[in-house]
């Protein structure tokens, strides 16, 4: 009897020439799968990998200084449209894609390339599940959480597509073992719910610690994450119930 294929979520990481297409292009894609095991627990699946991509334009020095990918290394690499589909829409088909700050990857990984896949943002989910982290970057979470099984050398160098996808996959695995896929997807569709104020006189404070006048000022903030967090906090206060962010347990479906 043929063994049933596992449920897969594929973690993606991109290295690019800059912030957004069409001005910029992809110069490397990395991936690492996370699968649901027979015991109902999620674990890393397979070896993952990475592919260099010809971005179709020079890589600016300021970007090379981050990921250290050289123009000559990608000159003969395949084009993005020749690489993307087979990485983003693998067989057995994944039930979702994931990335740390997935809004960035989604600019390049269009619905046409992903078959309109759902995305999990491990950054947004970390804000909800691990609000006490000193920061929420991929690497700070790595060293603050120390995920089980993460091989230090395999997650290096940082700012390269496979090592970053490998680290993110450990965060995703642990998030999936704390909350359902449906819950992670729901959090990922909304702006980030920030545990602490980012800037201003109340910088670093828990949102429940600031007074209402300050909170009202954030309701018109240009940053959608700040604005969403302020709106959420105001709604809680006006509801007459819990003031401030609830615990991770309260947020689970």
Give the structure's gist in a few sentences.
This protein folds into two domains: 182 residues, Ribonuclease H-like superfamily/Ribonuclease H (Nucleotidyltransferase, domain 5, 2-Layer Sandwich); 45 residues, no CATH class. The protein has a five-stranded mixed β-sheet with strand order 3-2-1-4-5, with helices on both faces.
Structure description:
- The chain is α/β, with parallel strands linked by helices and 253 residues long.
- The protein has two domains: 8-189, Nucleotidyltransferase, domain 5, CATH 3.30.420.10; 207-251, no CATH class.
- Helix content is 39%, strand content 15%.
- It contains twelve helices and five strands.
- The protein has helices spanning 61-67, 71-74, 80-88, 102-108, 111-114, 122-129, 138-145, 161-176, 181-189, 212-218, 224-238, 248-251; strands spanning 8-16, 26-36, 42-52, 96-99, 119-121.
- A five-stranded mixed beta sheet has the order 3-2-1-4-5, with helices on both faces.
- Helix 7 crosses helix 8 and helix 10 (212-218) crosses helix 11 (224-238).
- The longest helix is centred in the middle third of the chain and has 16 residues, at 161-176.
- It starts with 7 loop residues before the first strand and ends with a helix.
- The model is unreliable at 241-245 (pLDDT under 50).
């Amino acid at each position: 009897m043929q063994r049933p294929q596992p449920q897969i979520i594929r973690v993606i990481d991109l290295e690019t020439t800059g912030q957004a297409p069409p001005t910029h292009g992809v110069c490397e894609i990395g991936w690492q799968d996370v699968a649901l095991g027979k015991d109902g627990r999620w674990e890393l699946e397979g070896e993952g990998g990475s592919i260099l991509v010809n971005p179709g334009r020079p890589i600016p020095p300021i970007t090379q200084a981050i990921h250290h990918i050289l123009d000559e290394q990608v000159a003969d690499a395949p084009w993005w449209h020749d690489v993307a589909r087979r990485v983003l829409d693998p067989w057995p088909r994944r039930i979702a894609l994931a990335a740390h700050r997935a809004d960035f990857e989604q600019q390049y990984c269009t619905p046409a390339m992903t078959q309109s896949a759902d995305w999990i943002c491990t950054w947004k989910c970390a804000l909800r599940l691990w609000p006490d982290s000193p920061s929420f970057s991929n690497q700070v979470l790595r060293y603050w959480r120390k995920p089980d099984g993460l091989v230090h050398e395999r997650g290096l160098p940082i700012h390269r597509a496979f090592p970053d996808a490998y680290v993110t996959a450990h965060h995703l695995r642990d998030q999936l073992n704390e909350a359902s896929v449906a819950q992670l997807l729901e959090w990922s569709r909304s702006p980030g719910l920030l545990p602490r104020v980012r800037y201003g006189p109340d910088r670093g404070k828990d949102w429940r610690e600031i007074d209402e006048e300050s909170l009202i000022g954030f309701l018109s903030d240009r940053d959608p994450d700040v604005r969403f967090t302020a709106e959420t906090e105001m709604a809680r206060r006006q509801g007459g119930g819990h003031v401030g962010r609830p615990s991770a347990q309260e947020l689970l479906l």
